[in-house]
TrEMBL record:
<keyword id="KW-1133">Transmembrane helix</keyword>
<dbReference type="InterPro" id="IPR040410">
    <property type="entry name" value="UPF0658_Golgi"/>
</dbReference>
<keyword id="KW-0472">Membrane</keyword>
<feature type="transmembrane region" description="Helical">
    <location>
        <begin position="68"/>
        <end position="86"/>
    </location>
</feature>
<protein>
    <submittedName>
        <fullName>Uncharacterized protein</fullName>
    </submittedName>
</protein>
<feature type="transmembrane region" description="Helical">
    <location>
        <begin position="12"/>
        <end position="32"/>
    </location>
</feature>
<keyword id="KW-0812">Transmembrane</keyword>
<feature type="transmembrane region" description="Helical">
    <location>
        <begin position="38"/>
        <end position="56"/>
    </location>
</feature>
<feature type="transmembrane region" description="Helical">
    <location>
        <begin position="106"/>
        <end position="127"/>
    </location>
</feature>
<dbReference type="GO" id="GO:0005794">
    <property type="term" value="C:Golgi apparatus"/>
</dbReference>
Length: 180
């Protein structure tokens, strides 16, 4: 249960990178920026960040409402990315400038990766949503206390015979770090 929690946290972090990366590429890789891409950029960044905040918050606090909003946003963002994917590969009328000629490969990679991560994140989110109230919070607390109870490295003083080290007849003290 706790391992799924950690996997979902990692997936959410990857989602942030790919969602924001896609939005930035959409505006910077298209020639002239395009007025539609600027509008889409100003809407996509805040909505994707807000969606992921709901995901992080819902997961951390085991808030079913926030997690339900996140799950709904994930389901609704899937068709958007599929639509953008279709638009990127739709044929351009003869004589018209292809707006994706220089950025098609990058946008395809980011959209494909984002859709894949979205599906995996959705699956893990549903599993975690079902685990709310069934010991997930307790498992997180146990993991925190387990790591807090681990002893740090101890400093141990060891006397070394100086003759063994060809340093004369006096005793020296050598310090070593040990792990128990």
């Amino acid at each position: 249960m706790y391992q799924n929690h950690l996997c979902l946290l990692t997936l959410l972090k990857l989602d942030i990178f790919f969602f924001v990366g896609y939005a930035i590429q959409l505006i910077t890789l298209m020639p002239g920026g395009g007025s539609n891409s600027i509008i889409e950029f100003t809407i996509a960044i805040p909505i994707s960040v807000l969606m992921l905040v709901f995901g992080f918050r819902g997961l951390h606090k085991e808030n079913k409402v926030a997690m339900a909003i996140f799950l709904t946003a994930c389901v609704l963002s899937g068709p958007y990315f599929i639509l953008r994917f279709v638009q990127i590969f739709s044929p351009v009328p003869p004589g018209a400038l292809d707006p994706y000629s220089n950025s098609r490969k990058f946008l395809t990679f980011f959209i494909s990766t984002t859709v894949f991560l979205l599906i995996v994140t959705l699956g893990y989110s549903i599993v975690q949503f079902k685990n709310f109230g069934h010991g997930l919070r307790k498992a997180r607390e146990e993991a925190k206390t387990k790591h807090a109870d681990q002893r740090p490295l101890e400093h141990v003083a060891v006397e070394v015979d100086a003759e063994e080290r060809d340093l004369g007849s006096s005793k020296i003290e050598e310090t070593r770090w040990t792990i128990d």
